[in-house]
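Quick sanity check, Helix-turn-helix domain-containing protein:
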Amino acid sequence: MNKPAQNINQLHREQLVYIGQILRETREAAGLSQAALAEKTLIRLSLLNAIEVADISQLPEPVYTRGLIRRYGDSLGLDGEALAIQYFTPATQKKPSRSFWRLPITPQLRPVHLYVTYVVLIGVAISALSYTLQRMSYQNSTLPVLEGEVAEEAMMPEGGPGSEEAESPTAPEAPAVPAEVADAPVRVTVQLQEQSWLRITTDGTVTFEGILKEGDSKIWTAEEQLRIRAGNAGGVRVSFNEGNAEVLGQPGTVAEATYPPNNTAQLPRR
């Protein structure tokens, strides 16, 4: 801390040696004493002497000393201002402060930043997908629920009730039962809508086994029981004792029926 002060005092002393020499030589050349100059300038004699001998310990602060030098020089007919500015204190260079707003603000990406960004993107994607699914679910769930007459009208085929029946193909009429078999206890009429293999068992005896074509119609009779086994049940319509004709089963499947009807079994295709 003392070293800079010593340097400044040394500098002032060296400056004042040159200035004091000029003032002293000029005063002596003019034949004036320090006392006469003290009276003329109203500067104390000790200060005038300190200026001439460069004794800075007897002088006030440099700013006041410069004022004394100016007045002393002007009283001798010199340029007091030019002399005064020779006595100066060099400006110290201030260490630039590091302001907060001058700190580098360039972002530095680190792995944690990338991880956070990745998590945020995944969250946004999941939210968008969830929102889309909710919207789709809402649209599906907001379809109007039809009830009562409205539902019946919506389910009703075009053309009004009975239109489907009207459009459905008319079941072929069962052939008339010949008079010679009209008294048989069991009478089964078979009509072929599609070609099918058939096996007819009458009272335990196989009376027919073969293929009938579409449009064929046959009547078999029995005393106690008649069994029909068909390879294409969907193409065979059967009427028992002139009753309503019914399809024996599903198309392409094997079915067997016994008359009088106890049950109708669906058998796997062989």
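Posting the structure with no commentary besides this: The first strand starts at residue 186 and ends at 192.
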